[in-house]
UniProtKB/TrEMBL annotation, chain A:
Source lineage: Bacteria, Bacillati, Actinomycetota, Actinomycetes, Micromonosporales
Membrane topology type: Multi-pass membrane protein
Gene3D superfamilies in UniProt: MetI-like (1.10.3720.10)
CDD domains: TM_PBP2 (cd06261)
Protein's name according to its UniProt entry: Sugar ABC transporter permease
Organism: Rugosimonospora africana
TrEMBL record, chain B:
Record-stated family: Belongs to the binding-protein-dependent transport system permease family.
Domain of life per record: Bacteria
Species, as recorded: Rugosimonospora africana
Membrane-crossing segments per the record: 49-72, 108-128, 140-163, 195-215, 244-264, 300-322
Compositionally skewed regions (Polar residues) per UniProt: 1-11
CDD domains xref list: TM_PBP2
Membrane topology value: Multi-pass membrane protein
Biased composition (Basic residues): 19-35
One Pfam match: BPD_transp_1
Renumbered residue ranges of the record's region Disordered: 1-40
Matching InterPro entries: MetI-like, MetI-like_sf, UgpAE/MalFG_permease
Name of this protein: ABC transporter permease
């Protein structure tokens, strides 16, 4: 699209490339991508070929499509249901968390109300409290009010993102000009009208960053759904795949044919997030800038 | 697709920030004078409560309440005979004398000391290499190192479990072909390293992106000035870039403290492959989980969770304190 005047390589006056650096980075490249290559290759194999043929190259028969079909039809199509559950949990959680964080971050950044700094400090301090330390008491609380084994058990705890609030406060501080707000107020616009009409648009890269990272956090969540849910119909993909893997390798009564389905299901579950990251990279990278620069 | 490398949003942001601080100073003066004239400024400031209230309500209900509830639960003990009784700090006394818990805490501390320097070192080297301008295909490298972050931990743990496998894992297959002994990834002596490798694979890219973003925000004229003074790429990296990365490195370090001490997903899933190596107290979090759901001892589990949270907060402050002391001296 637009020309890029200052790519890193054009930065210095000399245009030199280091071969040593290239070799080192190729080694890293192999380390980070070969496991995923193995996953792609393994997803094309039958369980028999998984055991009998070399892992980093294709087997005798190409059974990718039958694997995918099997994955989606096994046990009345529970894989598709898990995928849909994961999608719903993460989209609702990420949307809600980003909305709360944006509203709050903007409030903390642009309004000097009494108690602003201590309240913000309290939220910021909580970034260090591990979420898993909260999971068990949250489980007990939720079981008292009957929320265990419902989608809300996954969604509600994911709505609070202290780090998202911190990121949005920093972002709002820089991205929103005070003079703009004052001009809008002089024109008689109400505070929420200003927020929805003017502020939201300027905060878009920050919002996408928070959205994406809470999406990933919920999509990847394993501990919380593991303790909150025991109805397989409600499982997200992580817990579902883990239950298949347990059936595939678990001693007596195990079903080794499930192995190729676990592999194929793993590959399919990874694709949407990688696609989202690649497509939205210019947003989350500039959003991360703000968080990393200002500590 | 446009990529952010060239447009350097950090520069734009930095410029915006300068402009903004000037304006802020001006507008603060304005506001103070307005406030003196009327109470309008105060009531407008109070509208801020409406913006932060929704977040704070959820924060109270889903963060502080469970935390306080954990503290409350941890003060009781449930017995088959006699029901629930108040035991004060009894559960904590039990925890401090619990060898399984202490063993788990020491194990994750060892994990932290083993894994985090390697991961941050790799992330730092990769970020510096990509930012140096001396590397071909830097964009491809940046994205490919980041890709594992998009793989859920559970999936990564399952996948590496298969890769480690002695039957059909590619490492074992290669070893068979060459004729050397099959590498034993899942034995007691190698398990911590094998788990560390999974976590490194997952999160190096994330740390690299944070460090890279911080590198992009260093003013370019610093490099030019250093180059005029005769500094080479290594010198610039050592004397300008790494000192400027301190806050970003600290952020990564804190995330790693939190992540290491609450290690759960990877050992929980690898447990199936090596049930004799990873027991139910391999990490404090596995222990809390098995206490709550296998032993049904929710009160003691709450005490363990609460203590674990405390350990993490203390470890985080130790890291903060140690790094800020070094900066002053």
């Amino acid at each position: 699209m637009t020309t890029v005047p200052t790519t890193p390589s054009a930065r210095g006056t000399r245009r030199r490339h280091s071969n040593l650096l290239l070799i080192g980075m190729l080694a890293l490249f192999a380390y980070f991508l070969l496991p995923l290559f193995w996953l792609c290759v393994a997803a094309t194999k039958t369980t028999g070929d998984l055991f009998s043929t070399f892992g980093l190259w294709f087997g005798h028969t190409l059974s990718l499509f039958s694997n995918v079909r099997e994955t989606f039809t096994h046990n009345h199509g529970e894989y598709g249901r898990w995928l849909a559950n994961t999608f719903v949990y993460s989209v609702v959680s990420a949307g809600g968390a980003a909305f709360l964080a944006t509203l709050g971050g903007y409030g903390f950044a642009k309004y000097r109300f009494r108690g602003n700094s201590p309240m913000f400090a309290a939220v910021l301090g909580s970034v260090m409290v591990p979420t898993t330390a909260l999971a068990i008491p949250t489980y007990v609380l939720f079981s008292r009010v009957g929320l265990v084994n419902t989608p809300w058990a996954i969604i509600l705890p994911s709505l609070v993102s202290p780090f998202g609030l911190y990121l949005m406060r920093i972002y709002a501080q820089d991205a929103i000009e005070d003079s703009l707000l004052e001009a809008a107020r002089i024109d008689g616009a109400g505070e929420f009208r200003i927020f929805f009409r003017i502020v939201l648009r300027s905060l878009a890269p920050g919002i996408v960053t928070v959205l994406l990272f809470t999406l990933v956090a919920t999509w990847n969540n394993y501990f919380l759904p593991l303790i909150m849910l025991n109805n397989p119909n409600l499982y997200p993909i992580t817990v579902g795949l883990s239950s298949w893997s347990a059936q595939a390798s678990g001693g007596s009564g195990s079903d080794p044919d499930l192995l190729s389905l676990v592999v194929t299901g793993s590959l399919l579950s990874v694709v949407p997030l990688i696609a989202a990251f690649l497509l939205l990279q210019r947003y989350w990278q500039s959003g991360l800038n703000a968080g990393a620069v200002k500590q | 697709m446009t990529i952010t490398t060239g447009t350097s949003p950090a520069q734009i942001q930095a410029a915006g920030r300068q402009r903004w601080t000037k304006r802020r100073r001006r507008s603060e003066r304005q506001r103070r004078s307005e406030r003196r004239r009327s109470t309008g400024g105060v009531s407008q400031a109070n509208r801020g409560y409406l913006f932060v209230a929704p977040f704070l309500i959820f924060f109270l209900g889903l963060f502080l309440l469970p935390l306080l509830y954990a503290a409350y639960l941890s003060l009781f003990r449930e017995r088959l005979v006699g029901g629930t009784t108040f035991v004060g700090l009894g559960n904590y006394a039990r925890a401090f004398g619990d060898d399984r818990l202490i063993g788990g805490v020491l194990r994750v501390a060892r994990f932290f000391l083993l894994q985090v320097p390697i991961m941050l070192g790799l992330a730092l080297l990769a970020a510096l290499a990509i930012d140096s301008g001396l590397l071909r295909l830097s964009k491809v490298f940046r994205l490919s190192i980041f890709v594992p972050y998009a793989v859920p931990s559970a999936v990564a743990a399952l996948m590496w479990g298969y890769l480690y496998g002695p039957d059909y894992g590619p490492f074992a297959q290669l070893a068979h072909r060459i004729g050397t002994g099959v590498p034993q990834f899942l034995t007691a002596s190698h398990m911590l390293g094998s788990l560390a490798n999974i976590v490194t694979w997952e999160f190096t890219g994330y740390d690299m992106i944070i460090l890279y973003a911080a590198l992009r925000s260093i003013p370019q004229d610093l490099y030019e000035a250093a180059a005029v003074d005769g500094a080479g790429a290594w010198r610039i990296a050592w004397s300008i870039k790494i000192p400027a990365l301190r806050p970003a490195l600290l952020l990564c370090l804190l995330f790693s403290v939190i992540g290491s001490f609450q290690l759960f997903t990877e050992p929980n899933l690898v447990q199936r492959l090596a049930p004799n190596v990873i027991d139910s107290a391999y990490t404090p979090n596995l222990y809390a989980y098995s206490l709550a759901f296998t032993s049904q001892d929710v009160n003691y589990a709450a005490a363990v969770s609460f203590l674990l949270g405390l350990v993490i907060v203390v470890a985080s402050y130790v890291v903060l304190f140690a790094t800020s002391r070094r900066a002053r001296s």
